[in-house]
């Protein structure tokens, strides 16, 4: 393993957690644990069984000649029926905590030989360095198992994007512009990442096929990629359709001319305030609209005009509130972008410091 690969591995995994587990029924009932890996820019989940942790521990011990710094939690027998006991849940929670401690001990160990081992990187689906020692391009490669983990994660990601878009539409219907904007931005970012990762998944399948794969398995996985691509297309249409609907809604609102006419009519109808005792009021002027009406018709016409004015004022107020909310949302988005840039700058500084320390250690060893 090259020095660049070692330094890169130390920098790419900044934190690691196991916060949940789930029971899967295929090919037979078993428990998988969700490993959440945080890198400098993005995070990704990895689903692993306890037996895969055992295999990893064996490979690391064999490759390095020494067991990892923390032991694996002991193995227990669990019940996968509907009559699961509280003791089973307690043991699962203890195992989850023990597996998290095991991984975090490897990541934070003073000796990097376990975390720099290729078996550990493949176990966590950690991306490889962008260039090799010879300067050639190197890309992250999938195994048969990690490819299925990535596909399952992308399906979950597509469901999350759809949920964000539905949430955005619901908030928009309630005139919560800032909340709708935040949900929409989140959905667009996830969709952009989803499209890129689906492309990488398709390329990974092609690489696996070249290394040997049955025709039936290749067809099954190709169908999985096709479904993900269809989901990306549908989600993209949902984003575009929602934007067009938003524009259509804005067109039914009063125009600037209508608002100006409304305000001018209100100003022209305003009478000077003062005492009117002893003053003769001018008789009301008949119009073509009021001339054929009786008293009941005049009252109805007056009520109709008042309701129309109330509606116009309500629409004008809605426009002003929407403009204010949009301004607040834009300000919030700018603040978030600034915070993200600050965090990225901090991460880059931290990575640079780690690389500098690594070089110093290598110089001392040399």
From TrEMBL:
<dbReference type="Pfam" id="PF00787">
    <property type="entry name" value="PX"/>
</dbReference>
<dbReference type="InterPro" id="IPR000727">
    <property type="entry name" value="T_SNARE_dom"/>
</dbReference>
<feature type="region of interest" description="Disordered">
    <location>
        <begin position="266"/>
        <end position="292"/>
    </location>
</feature>
<dbReference type="GO" id="GO:0007034">
    <property type="term" value="P:vacuolar transport"/>
</dbReference>
<dbReference type="GO" id="GO:0097576">
    <property type="term" value="P:vacuole fusion"/>
</dbReference>
<dbReference type="GO" id="GO:0016192">
    <property type="term" value="P:vesicle-mediated transport"/>
</dbReference>
<feature type="domain" description="PX">
    <location>
        <begin position="11"/>
        <end position="130"/>
    </location>
</feature>
<feature type="domain" description="T-SNARE coiled-coil homology">
    <location>
        <begin position="303"/>
        <end position="365"/>
    </location>
</feature>
<dbReference type="InterPro" id="IPR036871">
    <property type="entry name" value="PX_dom_sf"/>
</dbReference>
<keyword id="KW-0926">Vacuole</keyword>
<keyword id="KW-0175">Coiled coil</keyword>
<dbReference type="GO" id="GO:0000329">
    <property type="term" value="C:fungal-type vacuole membrane"/>
</dbReference>
<comment type="function">
    <text>Essential for proper morphogenesis of the vacuole. May exist as structural reinforcement on the surface of the vacuolar membrane and be required for maintenance against rupture by osmotic pressure.</text>
</comment>
<dbReference type="InterPro" id="IPR001683">
    <property type="entry name" value="PX_dom"/>
</dbReference>
<dbReference type="GO" id="GO:0035091">
    <property type="term" value="F:phosphatidylinositol binding"/>
</dbReference>
<feature type="coiled-coil region">
    <location>
        <begin position="306"/>
        <end position="361"/>
    </location>
</feature>
<protein>
    <submittedName>
        <fullName>PhoX homologous domain, present in p47phox and p40phox</fullName>
    </submittedName>
</protein>
